[in-house]
Design goal:
With 268 residues, this protein is α+β, with helices and mostly antiparallel strands. The chain has one domain. Helix content is 26%, strand content 25%. Strands 8-16-9-10-11-13-14-15 form an 8-stranded antiparallel β-sheet, with helices on one face. A two-stranded antiparallel sheet has the order 1-7. The longest helix is centred in the N-terminal third of the chain and has 20 residues. The radius of gyration is 20 Å and the shape is globular. 30% of the residues are buried. The N terminus is likely disordered.
């Protein structure tokens, strides 16, 4: 990284030492990737355009785990959406800022060993850090993490479908990612969970000192990415999951529609 870029990054991310302090202060950053650009309409349009290729790569690529076994990428539902976003942002040096009930996460942060030492300095490390506490309900943080998409006709590739309206309190509990959108069909891809990430399962796993939402845990609940699509029938949308054979009529009606709040990511 050049001195010019490092200087720019430091000034953007860290408060400068007051003039009265002659000695200055040493600042250490955790840089998952350097912010060298800002989101604008062109980058946002390119995100929507490139999502299908990113998704295809994540679905087809494999890795070897610590035991030397070849595995497919596995994600829970919201984790998959986070990873797709991180892949695009890292490629172009774009900022990402996501907020959960724990804290706000950025691709460049003041280094804190307790928060950062377990994560590699790349898009994989950033995604894993955020995934540990980011839940489906965090997609409902409107004007923070996301903005509302008013109707299915406005959906674009990379937008977020949050299943929430089938619960009394309207709290999102499942996320799908729009892949291809046409007038009469919406193709989605989704992560999912091998076991429900709900009590009492989470209590039991926590008692064992592990976390089903943590992608670094051996009990991480993620599964290989799944395919599905909504097909318009009259005024409603019927959901099809080719892998399981599930068909659900008028299923889109229980989803809320969102888009990442890209321009908010530019702000400190």
């Amino acid at each position: 990284m050049s001195a010019e870029v490092l200087s720019m990054l430091t000034m953007r991310s860290v408060a400068l030492t007051p003039k009265a302090e002659q000695a200055g202060k040493e600042v250490v950053l955790k840089v998952f990737w350097a912010t060298t650009e800002h989101w604008d309409e062109t980058y946002i349009a390119n995100y929507h355009k490139e999502v299908p290729a990113i998704v295809e790569r994540l679905m087809s690529s494999q890795y070897k785990n610590s035991a030397g076994e070849t595995r497919n990428n596995e994600f829970t539902c919201e984790d998959f959406a986070i990873r797709v976003l991180s892949e695009f942002a890292q490629k172009y040096g774009l900022p990402v800022k996501l907020t959960t009930g724990v804290r706000t996460y950025r691709n460049m942060e003041n280094y804190n060993p307790g928060q950062h030492s377990d994560y590699t300095s790349d898009q994989y490390g950033f995604a894993e850090m955020v995934m540990k506490s980011y839940g489906a309900r965090d997609m409902q943080k409107v004007d923070v993490n996301t903005v509302v998409v008013a109707s299915p006709t406005e959906l674009m590739s990379g937008d977020i479908l949050a299943q929430a309206k089938d619960k009394d309190k309207g709290i999102a509990h499942h996320i799908q990612l729009a892949l291809e959108v046409a007038d009469d069909r919406i193709d989605i891809r989704q992560g999912n969970a091998a076991l429900p990430i709900v009590r009492p399962f989470t209590w039991i796993v926590t008692a064992l000192g592990m976390n089903m939402a943590d992608p670094q845990s051996i009990l991480y609940a993620g599964v290989p990415v799944q395919k599905g699509y909504f097909e318009k029938t009259g005024e409603s949308w019927t959901y099809h999951n080719p892998g399981t054979g599930v068909v659900k009529e008028n299923y889109l009606s229980i989803f809320e529609l969102y888009r990442w709040n890209f321009l908010e990511f530019n702000k400190e």
